[in-house]
Request: fold
Amino acid sequence: MTVPVALSIAGSDPSGSSGIQADLPTFAALGVHGTSVITVLTAQDSTGVSGFHQLPDELVAAQLGPLVSDLPPAATKTGLLRDASVVRLVSERAATGSLGALVVDPVLVDSRGQPIADDAAVAAYRDLAGAAAVLTPNRWEAELLTGCRFTDDDHGAAVDALHALGSELVVVTGGRGEGPTVTDWLLSGGSCWALRAPRVGRGPIRGTGCTFSAALAAHLARGATPVQAAERASEFVRYQLMSRADLRLGAGRPGVPHALGAVGRPRAICD
Reply:
């Protein structure tokens, strides 16, 4: 008996709502075996991040090399890479084909929309995007990657620039916006269309971006096309949020209730 393998290359969130701790239960809920390479250790709880330690490049490489040789991933997602040299390391691995279908979640801004990556890291992400089956920036990150404005009403130049990066599919996520509707923009093959859903909750929820990109990678690992995987990942995140909309973990912003994966029906509704 075998199951598909999905790999997360990301930071650690000890509060359990994002990063590696969000990705692994998402993989499990969607029927794939999750593996992980940690890039950054953080000190954080539900109220915010108080510190971080970036692991040396050689330790990231030491985790990655033997792992993908022993457990070759059908798909890989990236989260917090933080440094241009680590982004380039992932690009080099992707070029060998050893990472499978690649989902790049470019973690370039903090929860307030302020950049956390320098110009070298942004440039490295532009190169990595060309190796990605799917690129999943939020709107602030799309603007950093392209230098163009991205809103629902003003995104034409950004769309052209995102297409030019070379990913098979780009999903510009809109969960951090305002209003009763969440709008994600999908860009593929020169086309651009909106994927809309009613907003769940009253404000931003921690871990939705990590969970979405992890679910997307899981569906790619199981053989879905990029567009199918994006649509199913969006449905999965919405199901998780709606099923435990009243759940509160900690004193800060609510997070995605990953424990639901063990008792809910995400595979049944997303396959």
